[in-house]
Amino acid sequence: MMMKFLLCFRGYVGEPLDYASSGVDIELEGRAIASLIESLDTSSRPPGVFGAPVPLPGGFGGVIEFGESCLALATDGVGSKLQIAMEVGHLGGVGMDCVAMNVNDLICVGAEPLAFVDYIAVPRADPQVHSKLGASLSRACNIARVTLAGGETATLPGIVKELDLSGTALGWFPRDSGITGQGLEEGDILIGLPSSGFHSNGFTLIRAVVERSGCSLLEPCPFDPQHLWRDIERFSDGDLPTLSEVILNPTRIYVDPVVDLIIESRTGEGVCSAEEIKGIAHITGGGLSNLLRLSQSLGWHISDPLPPPPEYRWISEVGSVSSREMHRTFNMGMGMLVAVSSDSADSIREWLANKLPGTKIVGEVTNQKGLVTHTDPNVIFTEY
After folding, report:
1. For residue 127, how many other CB atoms are within 10 A of its CB?
2. pTM for the complete prediction?
3. What is the Cα 286 distance to its own chain's centre?
4. Residues of the chain with CATH 3.90.650.10
5. Pick the CATH number of 49-174 from 3.30.1330.10, 3.40.50.300, 3.40.1570.10, 3.90.580.10
6. Helix, strand counts (H, E) of the chain
7. Of 99, 131, 167, 270, which is most buried, counting CB atoms within 10 Å of its CB?
């Protein structure tokens, strides 16, 4: 294994890589999205009617009025993770990625996901590819407990050069019971839920690092991929997981246990009241800076981070990627974070950990306005 590890560095040159130099500038993307939002009218529907917009801080999902309920919608895609999946001929996990990226966003506003629709764009139709995608999406919707309500397939030669997969999820919550972050206060506790790996972010940088390493995606990992809080989904026959199996490990869906925690808190049958669940963040693109979306007046300190799976260290070392860039681009082993009242933190953590082992208290809310800090002093964020 050590010899293979050394051989896989044959393309290594040492210059630091980051997401922007690989082709994705997160800060520029953020400015572009802000520009788009500023040019949009929110709705033609006035308050009090079905479909009227419901302002909800955090921005993880769009919310509209629906009588005594609110509907929440989220839309997202798999991104360039699809390029690796197509290269190695394995599409069994990409449906999970697509569904997860959407339903996990809905959870953050306190919504229970209900339904999902997909959009598949290809340069040419391929029944075998579509069959694999359908099976993957169906499996993911069963895990997320949602109805696969339909979708659209477009064949776009000349426009689309490779497979693209995205989707939209619909959820609901009782009116006036959305999770907004508005009740957060200094001293609230942060509970981290472990990820299954990279999930579906940062793959432009991952592909650049793999290219630099010289490693084959179809050969065994150049590192020990074992990690206590996740399993690797296998699709090869070898004794050891391949590099592609580790990289393509499907995104974790957090409907179970987080939605169950929310529902039980509202019925009075859970380990806490609804008011004690203060905020939820899906740690995706932007990494820990996502926490800043929940409050403009408070700060966040990660005092005891979840241990990242070994592939993160490999990416950092081979790509000479800085610690801050790693925490800005990837989830670093924590796919979701729940901010709760300090009075109920231990009981909530225990309840979640019984359903998702590895869940633990990772930090606290601070009075440092608009600041995310970490045990690593190089990891500081002041804007999303």
Report:
1. 7
2. 0.92
3. 10
4. 181-374
5. 3.30.1330.10
6. 12, 11
7. 99
